[in-house]
Amino acid sequence: LQTTIGGASGRAFSMASTLGRVAFACALAFPILFASGQSISAADTLRLEYADSPLYGLDVAQPRFSWIVNSNSRSAKQSAYQIFVSKSANPQQGEVWNSGKVATNATSQIVYAGATLSSDTTYYWNVVWWDAQGSQAPASAVFTFHTGFFQASQWSATQWIGGFNQLRKAFTVSGPIDEATLFICGLGYHEVFINGQKVGLNKLDPGWTQYNTRSYYVGHDVTSLLQSGANAVGVMLGGGWYTQGDNEATRLLFQITISSGGSRSYIVSDLSWKGAQGPITYDSIYNGETYDARLEQPGWTSSGFNDASWAAPTSMPAPGGVLSAQLIPAIQVRTTVSPLTISVPQPNVYVVDFGQNLAGWVRLSVTGPAGTNVTLRHAEILQHDGSGMIYTDNLRTAKATDNYILKGNSSGEVYEPRFTYHGFRFVEVTGFPGTPTLANFLAINVGSSVAYTGSANFGQAVLDQIQHNIYWGQQDNLMSVPTDCCQRDERLGWMADGHLSSEEAIHNFFMPGFYSAWLRLMTDDEQNGAIPDTVPHMRYGSEPGDPSWSAAFPLLVSYVYHYYDDVTVLNNNYASLSAYFDYMYAKVQASGLGKMFAYYGALAFLWFDGHCQQDVRLRRCAALPLH
Fold it and tell me: pLDDT of 379-399, one tens digit each?
């Protein structure tokens, strides 16, 4: 069983019983199925570097394969496998890699050992397995992956552009299109459209990093969106975490690789693009978004749009550091929640109750005169005085407010934010034209799209509600990094919160790719062995980090290794772990454990001038050999 305890600070703590850990470990170590019959089925749930098919933008030269075996034979297990990798959609040609029949029961962490993978190239793979009796399963379904760039010099796009929050490019494609792949890094956040259609399902993309050391690019298959002849692409940019920190301006690196008849052409970001300010007049992670629909320019993401009044973009410097493919599960819509009630605590003030705290935003449906400003303020609870008004003191400086200014469409208008998110159950609505109904609002819950792999049903309302709260509390704080809260002016990757809730998260979600990415950000932030309290490090948290916070680094390495049999996580982090332990050991030798930097009362003891603090909670420290 797991339980999550939330304090006033928004910190989350996790406890997992020994029974739960043993059951989970057994489930991973022994993929044994108990059923009747004798047939075995094709392997399924194929993954590459923990990602599902199709995968666009793989930049790992020796990726790892995994799958799940299926059989309705009692106590069946794998005795051997054979992997095929090809540039053909029929991977069993195996000209890139044919592993041969490998005698093992391993179904994960199988490292690629074929020919060197080429950048910006599509590959296909599948697997065959044998059971203990030597029976061969049918070949699995085909997994498609397209590589990104293994070296920065392999990009065709080199020019970062900016200056506007809407950028477009019209272009012509000659001849039939065999394949088209988009690679994009729009900082802080981006949404991209081709010929009027949004590309992909991702929200708040790309994921958050320490931008001066690493930024993520995102890959998409856009073959079906392009056409022979005239085309156009449009990109919307938002500040996100990039401008929340020390950076002042958004920027874009963009490349489409088009394959046609054996040749390639490229659409890249450069100064031939056009830019203009769009209807998003303000956006902030903490404060919300203002959208003036009167400033929309219909058709700007399609060919044939007259962009004569648009200006050339500005050449922007690269953000610094390296560009890495975004292999973490992207932020996407997890679910939607309909409101339960609307109250009117004051004249023309409406409070919508969704009945569930969640991370995301509200989709607003509204009809009214042009220039009408509908304001949405978000909160987790109501005032304690019974007034029915929302309580926002816990948000501190975060305004958590979205404004939608109507364009006056008599057929109705629909708005939802693009470049912010909020933690809320209640929404205060003012400026609404007329009297709203429940149908005017829908809560959109977003978060990293990690698969939900654990569940528990106790048949008792209290226990079932606890599990429900665990699920929502964790899901709402998976936003490309694990955050401490989703509502106030923080929402940071606090390290202690991350490691204390990590085993609970592993029980409930498929977390190895997510945590591996966060560990890489920790190594990015590591300075001579010191790890900060928050990763990526900004706004809050000390550097070096409190030992109880920075301990997330070795602990998460251990959890990913033990729970997922991941040796690569040890190899990738060994050097930084060694530096971290050397740094901590030097601090202990210099001052003793009790005099080390402890910023948040995190240690179970405090030591001043060689004596324990005389606090009844801490007296047990007197017996500890601190020096």
Answer: 999 999 999 999 999 999 999
Q: Is the predicted pLDDT of residue 12 greater than 90, yes or no? A: no
Integer Cα distance of 411 and 613 in angstroms? 69
Q: 605-627 pLDDT, tens per residue? A: 443 333 334 333 333 333 333 32
Beta carbons of 421 and 360 less than 8 angstroms apart: yes
In sequence order, what are the beta bridge partners of 33?
76
Position 524, amino acid: D
Q: Give 147-196 as a DSSP string.
A: E--SSGGG-S---EEESSSEEEEEEEE-S--SEEEEEEEEESEEEEEETT
* pTM of structure: 0.89
For residue 530, pLDDT beyond 70: yes
Question: Is 24's pLDDT higher than 90?
Answer: no
- By percentage, how much of the chain surpasses pLDDT 70? 88
Q: Residue 585: enclosing H or E segment and its boundaries? A: helix 568-591
Cβ neighbors of 591 (< 8 A, separation 6 or more) are none
For residues 339 and 102, what is the distance between their CA atoms, to the nearest angstrom?
54
Radius of gyration of the chain (CA): 26
Within a 10 A sphere around the Cβ of 432, how many other Cβ atoms? 19
8 Å CB contact between 251 and 323: no
For 310, residues 6+ apart whose C-beta sits below 8 A from its C-beta are 168, 274, 275, 276
**Taking the C-alpha atoms of 226, 227, 230 and 236 in order, what is their torsion angle to the nearest 10 degrees?**
-20
Burial 488-515 (b: 16+ CB within 10 A, else e): bbbbbbbbbbbbbbbbbbbbbbbbbbbb
Residue with tokens 């106790």, as numbered in its chain: 458
Q: How far apart are CA 466 and CA 295, in angstroms?
A: 46
Structural contact between residues 251 and 161, judged by C-beta atoms closer than 8 angstroms: yes
pLDDT in tens, 434-452: 999 999 999 999 999 999 9
SS in 3 state form for 541-565? CCCCCCHHHHCHHHHHHHHHHHHHC
> Per mean pLDDT, which range of 465-474, 503-512, 611-620 is the poorest?
611-620
Q: How many whole angstroms separate alpha carbon 406 and alpha carbon 294?
A: 7
Residue with the two structure tokens 């202690």: 496
Residue 490's contacts (CB-CB under 8 Å, 6 or more residues apart) are 10, 396, 483, 484, 539, 540
Report which residue type is found at 283: D
Going from the C-alpha of 124 to that of each of 2, 181, 217, the distances in angstroms are: 39, 16, 22
The DSSP result for 378-446, as a single string, is EESEE-TTSS--EE-GGGTT---EEEEE----TT-EEE--SS--EEEEEEEEES-SS---GGGEEEEEE
Question: What is the per-residue pLDDT for 604?
Answer: 39
Bridge partners for 378 per DSSP: 427
Q: Pull the structure tokens for residue 152.
A: 């920065």
H/E element, 447: strand 441-448
Mention every residue, 6+ apart, whose C-beta is less than 8 A from residue 1: 16, 17, 19, 20, 456, 463
Mean per-residue pLDDT for 334-351? 98
What single DSSP character describes residue 89? S
Please tell me whether the peptide bond between 417 and the residue prior to it is cis, using omega within 30 degrees of 0: no
pLDDT of residue 402: 98
| Helical packing angle, 512-525 and 552-564, nearest 10° | 150
